[in-house]
Structure formats: structure tokens, C-alpha cells
Amino acid sequence: MLDTMSHTQFNNRLLNPFGRFEWAMVSVSIILTLFGLILIYSATTSLAASEKNFVIKQFTWMCLSLVMLIALTLVDYKLFEKYAFWVYFALILALVVVWAIGRVTAGSRRWIDLGLMRFQPSEFAKLAVVLALSRCLSEKFGAGGLQILDLVKPAIIIAVPALLVLVQPDLGTAVVTILIGASLVLFAGPPRRVLAWMAAGLLSLIVFLYFFGGRFLLDYQKRRIATFLNPEYDPLGSGYHILQSQIAIGSGGLTGQGFMQGAQNQLMFLPVKHTDFIFTILAEEFGFIGCLVVLVLFATYLFRGLSIAQKARDSFGALVTFGCISIIFWHVTINVGMVMGLLPVVGVPLNFVSYGGSSLLSSFIITGLVANVSARRFSYLE
Amino acid sequence: MTEYIKPFASMKDFRLQVLIASIVILVSFGILLARLWKLQLIESDYFSEMSYGNRTRLMRLPPSRGAITDCNGTILAQNQPNFSLSIMPGELQEPEKVIDSGSSILGITPEKMRLLLLNAANSPKYRNFQIKKNLTVEEISLLKSRLGNVRGVVIETRPLREYPFGESLCHVLGTMGEISAEELVRSERFVYRAGDLVGKTGIEKEYESYLKGEEGWNQIEIDAKGRQLGSTNRIPPQRGADISLTIDISLQKFVEEVFIERAGSVVALDPDTGRVLALVSKPGFDLNLFSPSISERNWKSLNSDPLHPLENRSIRGLYAPGSTFKIVTAMAGLSEGVVKPETTFECSGELEVSSQIYRCWKTKGHGKVSMHRAMVESCDVYFYELGLRLGADRIAKYSSLFGFGAATGIELSNELPGLVPNSLWKQRNYGVPIKDGDSVTISIGQGYLLATPIQMANMAAAVANNGKVMKPYLVEKIKSSDGQLLFENQPVQKWNASFNSGYLELIQRALKDVVEDRSGTGRKSFIPGLKVYAKTGTSQVIREKDRGTEQEQVPYHERTHAMFVAYVNDRPRKIALAVVVEHGGGGGAVAAPIAKKILCKYYGIPDSPR
Predict the structure, then answer these.
(1) Segments of chain B scoring below 70 in pLDDT
(2) pTM
(3) Distance (Å, whole) CA A171 – CA A298
(4) To the nearest whole angstrom, how far is the Cα of B153 from the nearest Cα of chain A?
(5) Which of A95, A144, B54, B475 lies 20 to 30 Å (CA to CA) from residue A209?
(6) In sequence order, what are the residues at sequence separation of 6 or more whose Cβ sits closer than 8 angstroms to the Cβ of residue A333?
(7) Rounded distance, CA A280 to CA A256, Å?
(8) How many CA atoms within 13 Å lie on the side-chain side of B275?
């Protein structure tokens, strides 16, 4: 592949980071965000006075995120490798701050109020875990593969933020953080023996929870805890929300009821429909075809990312790219699965599409990191 | 030629992992699409039917707002249910029937009704479109019997804020209005929706979180005709807390009635505690105009009124306190040792300072005046001399001790601090040092000096209190709907100025003689059998060009403000008050009689005709 490229051409591309700019993923990111803006407008229009505010706020965040994306592309990702642990510790500190002084939102603390905006560190904590884990795992490759003891450090890297998120309490984000971390460890490719140990550990945990987890709690207690963890989704604790969401999706049919015409959207009370339940609006107003388009866009994004991970110039680049991709993958799968009633309701946004500054910014940071790895795919012998 | 190879020999090959990941992605997305296919294509009809037909709805039950009462429990603001007829255009099935019955019941012509429905059809499909509000009980029962079964016709209940006393205490109680987008975004913690009514000014705003209450929920099932089948789950709303004020509405109303002048303010405080007894700002407005929302026309007329009825003058009106400020200058002069109690100055009717003539209100002059006489007869020249010797900074120090230049801290958040000029302020704002002429005008409460009526009342209270400055307060206590006491206000002493008691006594004696002495300027507030301490003030609005002009010939906006501060502290119920009549003329002539009426009412003394 390289042989076909002349020397100067290649040099130019190296000097100019936009020479290998990841147009495909950036375009998909922007298209999804714009689609999200339309849905947010529709979702918030029943909140008469504030409709413009939500859309304008999200648009402002998009512009800010694009600036962030460009900035991220300009520096070499070596820098992120260098400062990975610093970023990680900063986010851990932010999570502690949220836990300590953060504002109570619907019974749980997830925000740091910065006056103009609310900063949700758990969104960025997932990214920090990916950076720290990639740095940690890539160091092992030189020393002859992952051994069982090499997994202690990664386990701690994943566990600390997961626990801090869990006490917020935000069970969903904690689980997603663990899933992302686990995906990345598996991607690093531990030898079979280690894999077997991991599988055995996981299996025994599941068996333990299955047989004994239920013993600790009575049925109504479990329900109460579930409602406690997600009060905004289920104010009456009776599955109302998921039913309404499924009715909305089902009534969308093949082509949807049309923009701003969804009866469930316009009529029903869905408190988080512009954030975590935005896919419901998409399904109701744009139907199966609309959903298909969005899922294909996400699939394009994910496969593109995988191919970049495969072609990255070093292990760190490959691991960061794969970690970023796995964030998007788990978010999309869990979010869409949850609104359709396949998975339990947890607070996971649909990247790019859901309303929310922290979520949008972190999504574009992901695109920026992957684009960075892609742009520096080739390098001189050092 | 440089060689290009992958730089790390130890670079792992991730091909297998990428392959597995690709399969995982494909399978997951496949499952999602299959589920979508099932929901949207196979079961679509079923869900569409559910969406349109039988369905459950989560209804929000808005809480009832708490009441505001006076100190005796008289209701000043409360919620009343208000019914309105609305149409949900997306569900309306028999428009002809609605036009027929609706127009005959509501007394609207069928043409107008048709037009209203047409407008409704063009508005968002699933939002209630209001046809008529303030339905009477007969209208409701007729509508229910004839249109009760028609889908899309809704009789909405909305709580309406009612103010039984209308204009009385309007600035303190404050108005309600629809929540703004900004407030909505800011208040994510409280569950507000667009269209909710929130307090916009006054107590309604400051105590919004107490008054609001907590919303409830009702999950109901609705059949294909939109009829409610039953409630499956219900969490009742919680009524907001009730707030009782320190104000006695009968005194407040009385003060409002005796204040017949166009504009001004009266503030009455309990000097010992800082309880506000009456807080009047004129002109006012009828609070009921704002409930549930003020009409465009009324809003325009209130907003463009040159007398600014929406402004609460008692805490936001800035006036030169005029001669009432001589209390401060006198205390400064005595405490700083500039004059002794027996020191006299010669008043010839004017004083020349830096080649500028400053006149006394009495053109002929007072002759030789002591501190006592200067206070009683309000001699300006005496205080010019005092001001000249004190300088602006020392006057400013004592002004602050009496509470001028800073908000008193009453619960209403938009209170203005007023202005006490000193040399630093003058240098900063005008770039020149403060002059003797400034000190001279400040000494009689003119010039740059600005104070609010509540500050003037608090100054009178401080004198009555021997130097203790209290924080005025309006809210006595807050009780939750189940009778639990949530908050009870305690008097707060802001500071004790610790004035020399001999000087205080001297000033207090002078203030008594302002009313009781035959030559006192506050004669018109004399009440037999009641020891009233007072000081009059007449503050100029523009520089006086022509002394000789009678007040009646001066245009309204150039007339002087009439000021009067007074207190009574030898009775079990004490009172300190400030009366400000904008462009009223002389303080002794116009403001003093108002104060007299208020004091007579407060102490139950029959108001003797002059």
C-alpha cells in the first residue's frame, strides 16, 4: 500500500494532520448530532417556552465539541499516552468531588455545577478508564504477553471509578464502565490460560449472585432499590415508562408518524425523552426506516473505528481506538435495547443524539481520539 | 530513501480480536433490528391501537400553593380553583356538536366558536387549546352533561391565585407569572413544567420554594373515547406551606387609605424587633390583574405609567432624606466633638461657603441657635456649620452607623442600598475630591445623599432603640400544610452603634420638641396624651431658583418631597415610621398629618380635628 505513494506525497501527509483526516467518522458524528437536534426540537416542543433553549444549547455544545475535535486532532496522541494517568486521576478526583459536594439530582449526585454548565464527570470517567487502561496494557506487550498478575492493575483501574459511580448511585454507568474496561482487556488478548481464569471467575460470580444474591433482599426491596436507583424513569415504580416507550416505538410503524406528529411524544409524559429516551421519539416519528438509518450510521462508525484499531501504528493507538469504539458500542446497544424493553432501564445516553452537553462533548472527544490515531497511522522509524 | 515500516517489532496483531468484535457488533445490531422489526412492523397495529385507544396516562397533579396571611391569620393570598374549557385538537371528534352546544352554553356566537376551533386545529395536535376560562358552576354542569362524552373536550382545573385585598400590600405580596425558559432551566431540581405559575416578585418570589408544595401523580386508564376508566395508582400532591407576615392588614389598609397623595411611601416598624408593621408604596396595582396572567393591555398601562406603580418605593425609592437626616449630622457633630450641646451658631438666613451662598429655609434667619433649637426649628445654617466642620467622611461614618448606604436586609431581594457619598466615592465617580460645598449639602440630607423610606424608618427605630440597629423582617413564621412549624423568624440585631447616652438623650429631647414645642416643625403630628418623637424634612428635587414661588405654582415634578420620621417608644407597643410624599411639598405640612393619623389609629386615640 505504501509503495504506491511517492515520498513527497507521504511527507506532506505526515506534516499535515488533515491529510489523513478521518472524514467518514467525523461526518457520521455530525450527521447523528444534527439528527439529534431535530429530535430534541420535537421532544421538547411540548415544553412550550423552553423548546428553543434546548436546541440552541445543544447546538452550542456541538460547535464547542467540533472545536475540541479539531484541537484533539492537532496534537500527537503520544501526548495522551504520556498523560493518561494524570487524566485518570483528575477524573477520579472529579468523581470524588461529585460524591462529596455534588448537587442532588433526583436523589442521586451526578453533577458538578460550574455555574453556566453542569459537568457530569462519569461521562468522561469512561474515557479516562480507556486511556489509563490502554497505557497500562500496552506496556505489557513488550514484556511478553499478559499474565494473570498483569491483570491486577487493570482491575483496579476499572474498579475505582466504577465504585465511585456506583455510590452516586448510578448502577447503569458503573456496569457500562466495567463492560468497557472488560472489552478492552479482552481486546488486549490475554493467553488462553488467563482467559480461562477470567471465565471461571465470572461464572462463579454469576452463580453466587443467582443463588445467594436474591436471599439478601425481598422482592419489594429489590423493586424499591431499582426505583431508588432510577427515580426519574419510574415515578410510580410500575414499569409505566417502558410500556409507554414500547407503544411509541410500535406505533411508529415502517415510516413513522412524521416530524412533530408522534402522539406519544407530544401527549405523554416522558420526563427524559429528550435525553435517554430520544430513540423513542426517533422510532415514533420516523419509523423503522429512520431507526435503520441511525443504526447503519452507528455501524459504519463502529466498523470504521475497528479498521483504524487494526491499522494503528502502535499498541496504545490500537487499544485507545478500540476502547473508544467499545464505549459507543455499549452505549448504543444498551440504550436502544433499553427503550425497546430488551434490557433494564439504566441511565445511558445515545451518543451524539441524546440531549446533554457532557455526553455530546465526550462523544466528539471519542471521534477526535480515533481520528488522531488514524491520522498518525504511519510514522518514521525512530 | 527512508524506509517505512510499522515502528514496533512487538506490535501485536489484533486481527483476531477485530474479527470477533465485528461479529459481536453484527449480532448485537441484528438483535436490535429484529426487535425493532417485531415492534414496528409485526406488532405495529397493536401498538398503534394502544397509542390511540386504550392507554394509560400519567397525569401530573399540580400542588395547591400555600397561603399568605397577616399576623392575625387573615388571608392575603390564596388559591382558588378555576375552570376552563379546552380542546385537544388531535382528539376532537365531533366539532359540530362542540360548536352547537358550546356556543349556546358559553354565550359565544357559533361563528366565533367555529373560528376558535379552526385556530385550535392549526395549533399543536396534542396540546390543550383553551376556548374559555373562568367558567361558572352552571356552565361547567351544562358542559359536562352535553359534551362530557365527546372525545377531545376537556374541562381543565387550574388553581387561580386570589388576593382578597386586591391592591393592598401588593408590592410586598408580589405577583405570579408563567415560568420563564431561563427559570425553567435553572430550576431542574424542582419539578417545574413550562406553563407553571411561579412567584415573580415580592414574597411570592422569595418564598417560592415554601409556597409551591409538591406535585402528585395519577396514573389513569383511558378508553378509546378518551373517558377515564379508573385510576390505577395515585400519589396525592402536597399543599405548599403557609406564610404569615408580621403585618397587620387592618393597619396596612388604614395607612393606604390615609395616604391620599399621588405617590410616595410609608414604612412602619417595631423598633425593638424590626418587625414590619406596615409597608406602603403608592401608587399600587390590583394583584388580581396578574392572576392567572396579566393582559397585554393592563401590562402596558402599568408599565408605561409615569408614576411606576410596579416599583416598590419603600425599598427601592431613592430620595434625599432632607432634614430628617439632621439626626445623623447632629449625632456626628456631638460624638466627634465638633460642637458641644451648648454651642451656638448665628443664623442670618444664609451661609457663604467657598463663595457660594447656602440658604436657610427661613429667609429672615433664626438668629442665635443652639443644637436643640436647630433641630426643633430645623435651622439649616446651624447644620451647614456642622457639616463644614465635620467633612463628608465623618458624616458618612455616622450615616452608616444609622444604616444608610446599605440594604437593610429585609426579605425582599431587590432592595436598593441608597448612597452615602464620601471622598473616595466622589474621587472615583467624578474624578475630583469632595468639596466643602458637598459636605454642607450632605449635612442637611441633600446633595448626593440617597436613602430609601425603609432606611429612614430604620434610622428612627435606631434612635428609639438607643442606637441598636435591627434588621427589618416581614415573615413571622412558615407552617407546613399539616401544621408543622417550619420556620419562625427571630429578631436580628445588626449592630449597636453605642452612642453616648447623653447625646442620644439630647437628640431625643429635641425630637420630642419638634412635635410639642410651639415653634416645632412637626407640630401637625401633635397628639394629646402621646409622646411622639419626630423630625420633618423637605427635600428639594431641583436646585431652587426662586424661593418666592408658592408650591401650587411649581410644576408637579419640580415640587419638593415631603418627609417625616417619627417614633413612639414609651408604650408597650412601639412604632417607628417614615412617611415620604413624593412632590408633596413641606414635610411638616403634608407628611406630618399622615403620620398623626397612623399613630392615632395604632394607639386607638380618636383623631381630633385641628
Answers:
(1) 1-12, 49-59, 123-127, 181-182, 184-191, 193-195, 220-233, 542-553, 608-610
(2) 0.61
(3) 25
(4) 15
(5) A95
(6) B28, B29, B32
(7) 11
(8) 19
